[in-house]
């Protein structure tokens, strides 16, 4: 369980800053989307379960303004955030987030799934639920993949507010991080900064934890920067490591906590309940009491 406490910086009178609006790129030339764009050489090549109607690509701020206007018109008062999830495998965390969004726990919608493995379980789940699948990056195993500039155009076209990594094994390009400052989350199956970095993923993490003699492990939700697993920690859960543990048993306990803590973190992100301490550490405001931090 995570203790609900007021952070030291808050008790000393330091200011906290809520998550700022993502940076936009002024002067972006609108580009056609959909069937018209497919006729151009620089079209975004992505798999779509349902091909969208032709539309113009707008800067993120313009898309958000249109969505806010629509929400004001229907009286909802609070815009549901638009989420893009990146996966490379079965996508169990993606499924947990998608189910939470459908059930109302997360005030947002998964509007696109990005993958480097178009045949993975996460991509199949997206297709079966009518979620567009974008293949990135282009590679020998995925020649239909797209380039970074095309990925950014696709995400803008879907009006994406936040990017969520859920078992995506590729390093996120700097261009995407610059486009979505403080707006990209990842979940890692260890208590970072321990057992993180390039090469630490899946069962490799749990084998290393057991071999080290560590008595505790658990998932970490963190913001993403230009390196593997070095962004600021947002939330963690702790599970014990038993004397007779196997990587499979430990992985199952950690995964159970992943599904819960990631959904809680995404819910806070979509409800604008992330505050930033002066030293750059993100904190989650309690849903019941905004003066309490988790």
Automatic annotation (TrEMBL):
Subcellular location: Plastid, Chloroplast
Record-given protein name: Phosphoribosylglycinamide formyltransferase, chloroplastic
Catalytic activity: N(1)-(5-phospho-beta-D-ribosyl)glycinamide + (6R)-10-formyltetrahydrofolate = N(2)-formyl-N(1)-(5-phospho-beta-D-ribosyl)glycinamide + (6S)-5,6,7,8-tetrahydrofolate + H(+)
Any coiled-coil regions, as ranges: none
Region span, Disordered: 1-33
This protein's GO CC annotations: chloroplast
UniProt xrefs under CDD domains: FMT_core_GART
Taxonomic source organism: Urochloa decumbens
EC number: 2.1.2.2
Assigned protein family: Belongs to the GART family.
EC top class named in words: transferase
A UniProt-annotated Pfam family: Formyl_trans_N
Entry-linked InterPro entries: Formyl_transf_N, Formyl_transf_N_sf, GART, GART_AS
Domain of life: Eukaryota
GO BP annotations listed: purine nucleotide biosynthetic process
Gene3D superfamilies: Formyl transferase, N-terminal domain (3.40.50.170)
GO molecular function annotation: phosphoribosylglycinamide formyltransferase activity
Pathway given in the UniProt record: Purine metabolism; IMP biosynthesis via de novo pathway; N(2)-formyl-N(1)-(5-phospho-D-ribosyl)glycinamide from N(1)-(5-phospho-D-ribosyl)glycinamide (10-formyl THF route): step 1/1
């Amino acid at each position: 369980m995570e203790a609900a406490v007021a952070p030291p910086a808050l008790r000393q009178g330091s200011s906290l800053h809520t998550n700022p609006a993502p940076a936009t790129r002024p002067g972006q030339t609108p580009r056609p989307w959909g069937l018209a764009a497919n006729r151009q050489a620089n079209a975004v090549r992505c798999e779509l379960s349902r091909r969208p109607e032709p539309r113009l690509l707008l800067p993120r701020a313009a898309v958000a303004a249109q969505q806010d206007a629509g929400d004001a018109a229907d009286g909802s008062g609070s815009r549901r955030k638009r989420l893009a999830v990146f996966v490379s495998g079965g996508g169990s965390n993606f499924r947990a987030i998608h189910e939470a969004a459908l059930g109302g726990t997360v005030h947002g919608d998964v509007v696109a799934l990005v993958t480097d493995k178009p045949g993975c379980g996460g991509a199949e789940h997206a297709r079966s639920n009518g979620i567009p699948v974008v293949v990135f990056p282009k590679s020998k195993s995925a020649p239909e993949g797209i380039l970074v500039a095309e990925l950014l155009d696709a995400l803008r076209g879907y009006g994406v507010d936040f990017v969520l990594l859920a078992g995506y094994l590729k390093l996120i390009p700097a261009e995407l991080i610059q486009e979505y400052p403080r707006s990209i989350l990842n979940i890692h199956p260890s208590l970072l900064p321990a057992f993180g970095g390039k090469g630490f993923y899946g069962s490799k993490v749990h084998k290393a934890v057991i071999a080290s003699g560590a008595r505790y492990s658990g998932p970490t939700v963190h913001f993403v920067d230009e390196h593997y697993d070095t962004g600021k920690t947002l939330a963690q859960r702790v599970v014990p490591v038993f004397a007779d543990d196997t990587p499979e048993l430990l992985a199952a306990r950690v995964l159970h906590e992943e599904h819960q803590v990631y959904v809680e973190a995404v819910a806070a992100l979509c409800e604008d309940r992330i505050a930033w301490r002066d030293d750059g550490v993100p904190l989650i405001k309690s849903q019941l009491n905004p003066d309490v931090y988790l």
